[in-house]
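for the recovery benchmark. tokens below, seq after
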């Protein structure tokens, strides 16, 4: 029990550090990019950030809903991505934590920051200064739209994640397999997982 608790604390700490670093990087990048573009492109970037959060939320839920047997059959036929899918399902809690809590929450925070930048740009277009009624109105409208798209998108994503978990995880696993094979970036430790199963 103590060993599991220590592992849980270690994982939680590492996730917290990763979240801190990624949040800082994404915030800096989004703010830098948005400051140099017109509000229309900025709005598209905000929507892309929201879409990213929705997709990763769906992946996290799909990992917890998927089961191993279909991927074992694929692995027996040596289909690319099958081994990676097995690793994802076996580590569903960590995978879901990364997708839902790290990427999902960061997307929510960054989309809020990016929305604020777009609102300022829009207010400047209409010739209104900070704190004006127009800026406050634009802020409320854009924040509401972003919130609605995030919640609505995640609701739809949850439906697909539960009913098509195998297809979603296999698609994600194939992407990971391609990255590991072609870009030589180790994302999942398939060898370690295979040894454990044996």
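predicted aa per position
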């Amino acid at each position: 029990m103590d060993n599991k608790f220590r592992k849980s604390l270690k994982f939680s700490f590492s996730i917290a550090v990763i979240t801190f670093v990624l949040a800082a990087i994404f915030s800096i990048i989004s703010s830098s990019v948005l400051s140099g573009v017109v509000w229309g492109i900025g709005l598209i970037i905000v929507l892309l950030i929201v879409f990213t959060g929705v997709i990763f939320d769906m992946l996290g839920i799909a990992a917890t809903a998927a089961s191993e047997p279909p991927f074992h059959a694929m692995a027996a036929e040596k289909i690319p991505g099958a081994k990676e899918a097995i690793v994802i399902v076996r580590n569903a809690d960590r995978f879901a934590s990364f997708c839902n809590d790290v990427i999902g929450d960061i997307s929510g925070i960054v989309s809020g920051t990016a929305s604020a930048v777009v609102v300022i740009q829009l207010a400047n277009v209409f010739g209104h200064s900070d704190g004006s009624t127009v800026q406050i109105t634009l802020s409320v409208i854009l924040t509401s739209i972003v919130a609605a798209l995030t919640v609505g998108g995640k609701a739809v994503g949850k439906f697909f994640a539960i009913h098509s978990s195998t297809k979603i995880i296999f698609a994600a696993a194939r992407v990971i397999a391609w990255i590991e094979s072609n870009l030589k970036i180790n994302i999942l430790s398939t060898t370690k997982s295979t040894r454990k199963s044996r």
